[in-house]
Design goal:
The chain is of the alpha/beta class and 451 residues long. It has 16 helices and 19 strands. The longest helix is centred in the first third of the chain and has 22 residues, at 75-96. Bound molecules: S-adenosylmethionine (SAM) and iron/sulfur cluster (SF4).
Amino acid sequence: MKTTRELIDRYDAHAPRYTSYPTAAQFTPAVGAADWGAWLSAAPLDRAVSLYLHIPFCKRLCWYCGCNTRAMNRIAPMSSYVDLLLKEADLVLSRIGRPVRVGSIHLGGGTPNMLPPEELERLFAGLAARFDLGDCFEIAAELDPEVLTQDWVETAGRIGLSRASLGVQDLSPKVQAAVNRPESFETIRWAAEALRAQGVTSLNLDLMYGLPLQAVENVITTVAQVAALRPDRIALFGYAHVPWMKPHQKLINEADLPGPEARFAQSQAAARYLVQKGWQAVGLDHFALPHDSMAAAARAGRLRRNFQGYTTDEAPVLIGLGASSISRTPQGFVQNLTQEREWRAAVEAGDLPVARGVALDPRDAFVGEIIERLMCDFAVDVAAIAGRHGRALSEVDRAWPRLLPFQLDGLAEVNGSMVTVTDLGRPFVRAVCAAFDPGAVDLEKRHARVV
Ligand SMILES: C[S@@+](CC[C@H](N)C(=O)[O-])C[C@H]1O[C@@H](n2cnc3c(N)ncnc32)[C@H](O)[C@@H]1O
Ligand code: SF4
């Protein structure tokens, strides 16, 4: 039996987060606006589509942030951004050429509550004028509690916000100072109560471990404080330190970062605490109260994974609007231009603002489903998925020898074509997924740590 230290040394390689397969690192400029236009015109619309709108503005930059955003406190650029989001919607709809029913809308960021309430209202009036929102069962937004106002919450309530995600990270002043993100528990409590009073029925809080100067005590103190608010969901993200991709992370003193063993202890301690207090562990990094739709989806084997992480969204078509947004149809994935300036220029010129993408071949769809089930259920029947996709089991022949070390170390079990990740192996599930990913070896250095 290996020690935790030995397991980390062996398996804490750098692997994708597998929010898609192929992963965003495999998108190429060979797939662009023309492909996206063609995929849109052929998109299956028998089921409602999901909309994702990216709002790349924040009050200030948190040094750990891995999102595509910038500090912005002027209204005019935000107002013109809303104009362009609606113009991008028009460009997409002109390629689809048919009416589009929307089942869910997700505002991500950045910080969507940086938009002034009247701009939020204008954005939703614009969406309602363009899409059929009659079946829209969920409107979700990622929010920074420090910039949330009563006025904004009331406007969101009128629009029909049903799910909100508040960034908390860590509540100790020492850790907050080390990442330039001051935030008080009182503010979070106020935000949670105000949102619930306006009709938000699913409240999520984002926590992080592995931050500079963070220790198990800080993580547990934070978890215990926020647990008192009984959030329906909690996301517990390991800090992904990728300064080569996010240069502002260089402001973080690397000497202050906890090592792999300390990170592991932090995540395990928080998970134990939450499970003891009644949250159900969902996937790799989520916890949900048993009544929440995500907990129910996980129990029923219907949990999904997309660019926002774990989700209950099963729509086959996702339309992403805004700088850096990712879209999906059964034919493939595309990502918009990530630089806001370039995205603006393309939309203003009347072009679909696509930077890169990847077409899904039938084999990708097969491997993608194996990886998605492993990430969501920690178990997969490879033969059953091969059968559904009409593929031969031999196409994933290379995976079996790669799984052997995981079996020998008690992290995974293989029975025939059934692969099960053990409790011990759960923190390493991304590495297990990589066994099925033919591109994984080349990708090693481009991703953050597994644990
Ligand atoms: C769009 S932000 C949340 C909303 C809002 N902007 C806020 O910060 O309160 C999404 C979440 O991603 C997580 N996150 C950001 N950068 C990260 C990183 N480098 N590694 C891991 N998680 C990160 C944080 O938990 C953050 O709350
Ligand atoms: S964590 Fe949230 S508030 Fe901080 S920079 Fe990132 S998106 Fe903005």
